[in-house]
Each structure stands twice: as C-alpha cells, then as structure tokens.
Amino acid sequence: MKLHDAVGTVTARILQRSARLRHAYLQRLDAMAQRKPGAERMGCANVAHALAAMPDDDKAAAMPRKAQFSITPVRTPNIGIVNAFNDMLSAHAPLQHYPDLIKAEARRFGATAQVAGGVPAMCDGVTQGTAAMELSLYSRDVIAMATAVSLSHDMYDGALLLGVCDKIVPGLLIGALHFGHLPTVFVPAGPMTSGLSNNAKAKVRELAAQGKVGRDELLQAESQAYHGLGTCTFYGTANSNQMLLEAMGLHVPGTAFVNPGATLRDELTREAVRTVLGRGTPMPGVPGADTGSCAPIGKVVNERCIVNAMVALLATGGSTNHLIHWVAVARAAGILIDWDDFSALSDVVPLLTRVYPNGSADVNHFQAAGGPGFVIRELLDAGLMHPDVLTARAGGLREFTRIPCASAAGGLSWRDAGASGDLSVVRPAADAFSASGGLKLLLGNLGRSVIKVSAVPEDRHVVQAPVRIFDSQEGLHAAFAAGELDRDVVCVVRWQGPCANGMPELHKLTPPLAVLQGKGFKVALVTDGRMSGASGKVPAAIHVSPEAAAGGPLARLRDGDVVRLDAVAGALQALVPDADWEQREVLAMPPALVHDNNLGMGRELFAGMRRNALCAEEGACTWL
Question: What is the rounded CA–CA span in Å between residue 483 and residue 467?
C-alpha cells in the first residue's frame, strides 16, 4: 500500500527540521556502540564492584575471560533491568517479581541480568486534585534521570525497561534514548480485569458533585472500578503509552493488554528477554520474521517511528498528555515535532476505536475486539503508517499486527488479528467511526492550544460565552458549589503551566463541568494546565501556550470577556477589539499563589525545574 501523501509530507518536514540534531545524536550513538563491552573496557576494580553481588554461577559467566586456545574474549551478554516497581501503583505491583523471572530466562541462554536501578513512579489517580499533583509532570524527567543513572554503570549489552503508567513510560523512554546504543525492550504488566464500568463510575462522580450521593457511595463505586492488580481500564495516558509502544515496535508484539497473572503474561515477559538477546520466538506467516539481533533503541526510534506513534495515538483517540510527552521523547532522539504535525496527521487519520472516554468499552473489551494488532494492521494497510521501520524484533512492524497466545507446548505463538470482534469498539479503516483523529489545534489571540473532540458531542464543538476566571481548580469547585456557574460559561483556569506550578492535571474539574453541560448550558474549559487522559465530553482547550506565568495571553483576560472556542474552525479567540486587547495589562501571578506553588509536599526541591521548563509544545522539558 502506497504511503498516504499527508503522512509522507509530515514525515519529510520532520526529517528536514530535525536533520542537524538527529545527525549529532546518531554520531554519539555510533561512538558509544563502537567501544568494547563494559566488562572488557573497565578496570578490574570496576568490574569486581559491578559483579560482587551476583550469584557465583552468574559471576563466573559474566567475568571477562579468554576461552581456552583462543585470544578472543568470551562474550556473555549482560542485561540491565530498570524497574519502576512499587506497590502503590496497581499497574506496577506485579513488577516486583519480574527480575527473578528475567534472570532465570537469561541464564537459559547463557546470559546474565542485573537490576541496574529503580525509578520513582507516582500515581496520578492518588494525587489528582492535591498539591502532590504539581510534582507529576516533573516526575517524568526525574524518571528519565534515574534511568540514566541506572544505565550509567555501563556494564550492559541490552536493557529491559519495566514500567507502565503515565509519566513512567515517557521518562523511561527519554532516559533510554540517551543510551541509544543499547538494544532495549519495554516490559509492561497489563490492565486489571474489568470492574464497575467507566460510564457507571463517571455517573456516580457527577451525582457526588451535585451532593446527591455521599462519600460512602462514591468510595464504594471507585473501589469497584479500581479493584486489583493492573492498569486502570480506561483508555487514558497509561494505556495510551502501551498502544504507542506497540506502534513503535518496542514491545514483544501484543504484550500491551494481557492481564497480570495470566500464564501468557509470564511467557511474554520471558519472550522480552529472548527478544533483547536476539533469540526471539519466530513468527511464521510474517514476511521476514525470524530470530535475529535486537536493534539499538536509538536506531529504532527514528522520524518514521515517531510518526507511527503519532498516527496510532490519533487513530485510537489517545491521551492529550502525549502532545507533551512524545514531543519530549522525540527530542531525546534528536527529532523535532510540534502540534502542527499532530494536527496535520489528525486531518487524515481516521478514528478506529471507541474506548472510554471516547466510548463505553474499556481496554479489556478493546483487546478482545482486536486490540493494537488490529489497529496497526488497518493503519498499515491504509498507507497511514510507515512499514519500513526497525523494531525490537527482526520481522519489523508487521509482527505487531498479530495477537499472542500460549502454544500447546507451553511457549508462544501468534495469530492473525482477523476481523473486528466488536464493531462498536474497533472498526476497519474503510468504515471508521470518523474520518479524522479528533484532535484539533486551536489558534487565536489566546495563543496556541489543543482540544480533543473525539469524545465531545458535535453540538458542543463550538462554545461562545462570557468567561469566569479562576486562579486555581479549588476556586472553580467553590463557584460551582455556590451555584455561580449555572449559565453558559467559559471557565478559565490559569497559572497552571509548567513554569507556574508544574502543569498539574485538572481532571477533578470534569464532574462539575459535566453536570453543568448536562443541565443544557454551553460550557467549556480553557487552561494552560493539562487534563487527564480520561477526560472527554466537556470541550476543553488545554496546554494554552505561552502560559500565563510566562506573560501569555490568558493573563490579559478579565471576567466577563466573551471567548469563542471553535473546534470546527480551529480557533480560540477573546472577542475583544484588537486595540483594547493590545493595551491590556498582562497580570503577574498573584504573590500568594507564587508562595503556595513553591512550598510543601516537596515542591521546594523542584524550583529549578519550574524555572527551566520549556513550554508545553516543546515537551515541557526541564533538561534542555
């Protein structure tokens, strides 16, 4: 299938824009790859320290030595494991026992494995609406740095990255790309089994926002939704991470949405070891699929790979957080992308899935209906993804159109994704839910922002109303409780950008705004903050850049100004005469807010990140 012209055009401009940075990145990667392996390159004391804690058999295998009658050193590959395990995150708790399984499988192939280090992993579900959420975005770059510290022992021939959730996967990926010479495979744990449906959970939240149910009923509903090991089952940032890793070829094919505890789950983890060692299970029926070396991650993640990830995000109605995170990921590989690229792709990439919040199904239903394998196959066949890309496996991206299953002998096999198992959840490209990906870039005198319209009713794609301005999400909640928002209103929550307070998610605003919309009012949110990947039906212009704290136009707005959010035309405009608008004072962030944003919950430690953070469209990076 010929590549779609728009995909080719976007890829070409990314290649041109990134040429200098990418060339420099690849030069560094090649220089690292040409060195001797760590155990041969390092001093004896360094090697002894690195191997001291290994079991004796592993130590004997890993110790550099000469084979009898040979001057060539015996090569024993050593895999570095970077683990985001903690048992605060339901999705990461299963990772506790993965290192033992990985080490045992490595030994089967004459290799060794070491836990190179751990990285922090915070749960946005726990911190939503609290001061701790102001550390959330920055935790991505902390994780990237922790990954780099882990791999800086420089004793590894490959890496396995164990992590799943919101900031963890982007952080691991950014860190790993700074060690791009290493073959690298991601190892997830899968989603929890289905509990209370996401629609039912959302309804109880709205009732609670109106005071119609109490804390006991709300806690019961939430506990029925979030009830066991695994990723939350809605298609938010965590599960979008997994879809994108499949589209980039950085998983064992089909790994993303297999539940923890399944026999297949352990076998997929063992296959990750085999894959990073270049000993993966062959996949009959896929041209070119065979065992072979695992490509270095810095070569896998090139411009075409990044475009494939963007396309997969749009085709599945994924999290808007990735308009920040994948910009940063691309930059770590010397690749420059921006929101214009996302918008141009969104115009031609059809929406192939309806998974909550874009529908009623959860990710378990998505997996049963065909999952990532079905989506990737449809996109490849429609010419909307680059087929000519490296992946962690020798067979290329076509391997990621298959569904894994346990073979009769206890190993792995794969089957074709086949037809959709449920057309209300997954559709072929020729019969898509919509012709576009549902992401729009909004431009106007309020700056640049994005809106995800795939879950927003069509009659809500344009909202024009007077604004009510808030300096915090608590202020909006108080106004809602007082009945002050029972009207057509555009709620503006400013001072929420990366430099102001770390750009927290404002998901706690969804229930009250949804209640207002349910009453028939025209309602929208405009903010320089983020919304959760689970947010949906209320129109929200988010990531407004430049942010208010950097002198952005939200600091010019005043209560009562009329704002037009037009997702059809791609506009976000304060309907104020140009002359008056230009003469408006640009307000500074209130001193009390500056003080509050800098103290407590460890926020003092992140002052340097707030000062150095780039804007949302540049990935909110703190390390450039």
Answer: 15
Q: Is 74 helix (H, G, I), strand (E, B) or coil?
A: coil
Q: Is 117 helix (H, G, I), strand (E, B) or coil?
A: strand
Residue 202 has pLDDT above 90, yes or no: no
Task: Measure CA 499 to chain center.
Answer: 21
Angle at 330 between CA 325 and CA 335, to 5 degrees: 150
7 sits in which H/E element: helix 5-33
Nearest to 534 by CA among 235, 129, 166, 197: 235
pLDDT, tens only, 83-114:
999 999 999 999 999 999 999 999 999 999 99
Strand partners, 490: 467, 524
Q: What is the pLDDT of residue 534?
A: 64
Q: Where do the H-state alpha helices sit in 339-455?
A: 339-346, 363-369, 371-381
SS (H, E, C) 347-380: CCCCECECECCCCCECHHHHHHHCHHHHHHHHHH
**Class at the top of the CATH hierarchy for domain 439-618:** alpha beta
Rounded Cα distance between 344 and 338, Å, is 10
Amino acid residing at 160: L
SS (H, E, C) 285-316: CCCCCCCCCCCEHHHHCCHHHHHHHHHHHHHC
Instruction: Write the single-letter amino acid at 231.
Output: T
CA nearest to 129, candidates 612, 530, 411: 530
pTM of the model: 0.95
What pLDDT does residue 528 have? 97
280, exposed or middle or buried, with CB in 10 Å at 0-12, 13-18, 19+?
Answer: buried
The answer for residues whose C-beta is within 8 angstroms of residue 531's C-beta and 6 or more apart is: 320, 505, 506, 507, 509, 510, 525, 540, 542
Q: Return d(Cα 83, Cα 287) in angstroms, integer.
A: 34
SS3 188: coil
Q: Are strands 523-527 and 489-493 parallel, antiparallel or unpaired?
A: parallel
Percent of the chain that is helix, strand, coil (3-state, to 5): 45, 15, 40
597 has pLDDT over 80 = no
Task: Give the pLDDT confidence score for residue 48 in this predicted structure.
Answer: 87
**CA dihedral of residues 516, 521, 524, 525 (deg, nearest 10):** -30
Separate counts of helices (H) and strands (E) for the chain: 24, 14
Give me 450's structure tokens: 């994005």
Would you state the pLDDT for residue 289?
A: 60
Amino acid at 137: L
Residue ranges of domains in the chain: 5-34+77-126+135-193+228-416, 439-618
What does the alpha-carbon distance between residue 155 and residue 294 come to, in Å, rounded to a whole number? Answer: 18
- At residue 415, φ and ψ (nearest 5 deg) are -125, 160
Nearest Cα to 453, choosing from 373, 346, 361, 551? Answer: 346
pLDDT for residue 377 is more than 90? yes
d(CA 442, CA 517): 21
